[in-house]
Design brief:
Chain lengths: 106, 118
């Protein structure tokens, strides 16, 4: 099973700051990585697919990069609604999610 | 617009079974796989299984194989997930999700809370 590791576990930032979230895969997954945002009490929402493609309707402040085993989600300038939990997910071999990174208000 | 509407919350006793539904609308049902994802209270997301609505073939995560059955009804555009032999560890919210390109979850249901308690 491919294991995804996310860091940091919690990221404490203020609105307007830049957020950099990391996801590392236990083996090469090419670019078969997606990022999801989950707000409390809501279903996850697709942000980025195939490592760097923004999903429909996702603001340009969200961007993804990486390939192979190391991936990054960047939020260029945090808006109040961006404080949430972010999960990465791979579809290279079966389907697994990372444990999540919580973006909290500092 | 694309919608996945799930059935309501369930409370079950240990050892019982539960069947959760996910009704799809706003798109051609047979064009997209549907997956199920579990989220235990305060925990992360875990893939449970999937179904190809065209032929009805299903696939499951190893830890759920033998205890979870995913089916579909093309006459009502509904996918079902049944879990047998429930334990308290199964208490979770279960989501269905439409899968683009195999497993890019572009639309999600609202979630169904299954509580297992004696």
């Amino acid at each position: 099973e491919i294991v995804l590791t996310q860091s940091p576990g919690i990221l404490s930032l203020s609105p307007g700051e830049r957020a950099t979230l990391s996801c590392r895969a236990s083996q090469n997954i090419g670019n078969f990585l997606a990022w999801y945002q989950q707000r409390p009490g809501q279903a996850p929402r697709l942000l980025i697919y195939d490592a760097s493609n923004r999903a429909t309707g996702i603001p340009a402040r969200f961007s993804g990069s990486g390939s192979g085993t190391d991936f990054t989600l960047t939020i260029s300038s945090l808006e109040p609604e961006d404080f949430a939990v972010y999960y990465c997910q791979q579809r290279s071999s079966l389907f697994t999610f990372g444990p999540g990174t919580r973006v909290d208000f500092k | 617009q694309v919608q996945l509407v799930q059935s309501g919350a369930e409370v079950k006793k240990p050892g019982a079974s539960v069947k959760v539904s996910c009704k799809a609308s706003g798109y051609t049902f047979t064009n997209y796989f549907v997956h199920w994802v579990r989220q235990a209270p305060g925990q992360g997301l875990e893939w449970v299984g999937l179904i190809d609505p065209t032929g009805g073939s299903a696939s499951y995560a190893p830890k759920f194989r033998g205890r979870v059955t995913v089916t579909r009804d093309t006459s009502t555009n509904t996918v079902y997930m049944e879990i047998s032999t429930l334990t308290s560890a199964d208490t979770a919210v279960f989501y269905c999700a439409r899968a683009h390109y195999g497993a890019i979850y572009d639309y999600w249901g609202q979630g169904t809370l299954v509580t297992v308690s004696s």
